[in-house]
Amino acid sequence: MGTPVSSVVIVGGGTAGWLTAGVLAASLKKQNKSAFDITLIESPSIPIIGVGEGTWPTMRRTLSTIGVRETDFFRECNASFKQGAKFAKWVTGKDDDYYYHPLVLPTGFQDTNLAPFWQEDSSRLSFSEAVCPQESLCEVGLAPKKITTPEYAGIANYAYHLNAGKFSEFLKKHCTEKLGVRLVLDDVVQVKATADGDIAAVVTRNQGDLNGDFFVDCSGFKALLLNGHYQVPFVSKKDVLFVDSALAVQVPYPREDSAVVPHTVSTAQDAGWIWDIGLSSRRGIGHVYSSAHTTQEQAEDRLARYLEESTESEAGAADLEFRKLTINPGHREQFWVRNCVGVGLSAGFLEPLEASAILLVEISARALAEQFPHTRESMNILAKRFNQTFHYRWDRIVDFLKLHYVLSKRTDSEFWIDNRDPSTVPDSLQELLELWRYQTPWHGDFDRTVEVFPAASYQYVLYGMGFETEPNPHGVSEDSRKTAAQYFASTQQQTRQLLASLPQNRELLNKIQQYGMQRV
Amino acid sequence: MPDLVALDRSKHKDLRVITRRGEDLGDRVHLVPVVASELSSLVLDYPVCFLKEDNTGQFGLYAILGFEAGENLFLSGEQWEASYIPLHLRRQPFLVAQPPGNEAAQGDAQAEGILTIDMASQRIGSSQGEPLFTPEGEKSPFLEAVEKALGELLIGARATEALIRALLKNDLVESAQVNVEFASGEKRNFDGLYTVNASKLKSLSGDVLGEFHRRGYLLACHLLIASLGQMRGLIRRKERRAS
């Protein structure tokens, strides 16, 4: 018999801590007969970072696993629907320059690659408009479902925008009241190790030792356990992704019934880009930039100008407070050491261009829940695999983020020019770009079960940004041309049908407040 | 557009209402809202399901009369081919309206509403049909029956809402998988119909089960589940019309 693992101590609340607690508690309860003791230590003195306000569609499954009602989530977290991202001014920087990375896969994506056929005639519709309805829905501000659609089901694929502070509180309430997670309000001041180097206990300021078999470090940038205790080195990605600073601001809507944009808007600036996220209650806007390419004053000026141009309120940005954050792009050399795993900012952070932060928390928590170490003996092997898997995932995210910069044609500032310097582009990405000059991204390019971004995401960014793949020298068969034509036609038909039937995003959010969604 | 006016003994003393059924009288409907107290009568002829209101997503209880909009398979000329006609059809063209500012009273079964009549209804005339008042100016037996039906509907609507709330609270509503195959070989799936989850109903226990029994919800659930068997009857009606 091995030594059973039956108590888990999570250090740190916030989105990472509570999501991990929720996923672990719900899954372990479902899988195992005997109860697990899950404790979360939340510091009463350290505020959560709470700027992660965009999710992936995976969050629907995560929330449903944890066992919360989607209606409650919308009502209590000021949530809204997110149907992907609109990238403005990333290619040329001109006013009419934009493309979408939607969440709906291209029509027929399981069996047919429409990209080469679209490239033959790319003059009429953008790639995303030609292969899926979502760009058209976003452009007119529609919701991805109706009030009659059950919770967690979508007519068009969707993710969320949410208030991170409220989300943590919402999860905390559910975890402690429904899932039996024990909350300890205290600060961790010391770590006690066993003779062979495992963590035996964390010492809290007021409540003494908290023993555990397994520890999860969700303590944020500080990484109390991974960094503070184990001193796992940090792998910086600043040579690839230059953004290292952020200014964040919360912007009220001018009216109670103001439209809520159903997608994230990311607008490129001369030394970074600005995110714009619509919640039901307010917008969250922020400028991330490279401090090597601009000053904080200039960045503040850019953000203020964006607010003036994009908000209807006459007050403008004058009385809004900018919050400054420092970003250290990169991740720990190991995420799981002995009996301790880092989830969230303690594991690492990259600029929020593709909302990968909360996603990484979800897939880390899910990986832990699905392959939870039953015994101490199985832990080292699981740790090795977890580290391999997550190294791969971080690298793919770095590649995918860098892709947005490499494909830009902007020459108006050093930031954009430097970003295309081949010495800053990972070899793995250079190789893919070389391949895609001759063939369009397809399933086989990303064949691991642990893929973060499917080939579809690469297609949306590549062809959204005007990348050119050479036509197949062998030509395409009549059969495949016919199939493609049918898919293009059915996409347009579906687009028309959805445009005629889906409600405005604000309208549906109001109805969710008033009536709620049904579970079935 | 309905034109609702409060029923007035003197203004409407000569009014008559046509009570026969007919396509020309607004009976070409494939769904009729019903109340739970009607279930024991409805189950003899009609499938009864929950449907979501388009505008709110909230569930309502409906008898199914046909497979598509405008198809009423129980209507044959002026005849209604079933032993029971839902209250909602029998009360037409009358409605009970709550006076403005009286919304709070809606939760109170005793609250008096105002009896109104839809003057735009094709059922209204002065030559044929049932009189509303006797020559002496008293309520006719017909009007008294209508008032009784409306009273039943009003109380029934509240009880039905309570039933639906209880079912949802206990997660007992599920999508009804209605796959119909006609003799012609045509197959159709009908989405948007909901019923009671029988296996979850069976696993109810303790206080909840006791309360379901006491309040009559248990009986209502069994009647609802049984009524789905009338889909076969509905198919037969459709096939008879086709042949």
Task: Walk me through this protein's architecture.
The complex is a heterodimer of chains A (520) and B (243). With 520 residues, chain A is α+β, with helices and mostly antiparallel strands. Chain A has helices at residues 14-31, 58-66, 70-76, 115-120, 127-131, 134-139, 164-177, 224-229, 296-310, 356-370, 376-406, 414-419, 427-436, 455-464, 478-501, 505-514, and strands spanning 7-11, 37-42, 80-82, 84-88, 98-102, 159-161, 182-185, 188-193, 199-204, 208-211, 214-217, 234-236, 245-252, 264-269, 272-278, 282-289, 323-326, 330-332, 336-337, 340-342, 348-349. In chain A, the strands form 5 sheets. A 7-stranded mixed beta sheet of chain A has the order 5-4-14-15-16-13-17. In chain A, helix 1 (14-31) packs across helix 2 (58-66), helix 1 runs parallel beside helix 7 (164-177) and helix 1 runs parallel beside helix 10 (356-370). Chain A starts with 6 loop residues before the first strand and ends in a 6-residue tail after the last helix. With 243 residues, chain B is α+β, with helices and mostly antiparallel strands. In chain B, the strands form 6 sheets. Chain B has a 3-stranded antiparallel beta sheet. The relative contact order of chain B is 0.19. Residues 104-110 of chain B have low confidence and may be disordered. The chains are: A alpha+beta (520), B alpha+beta (243).
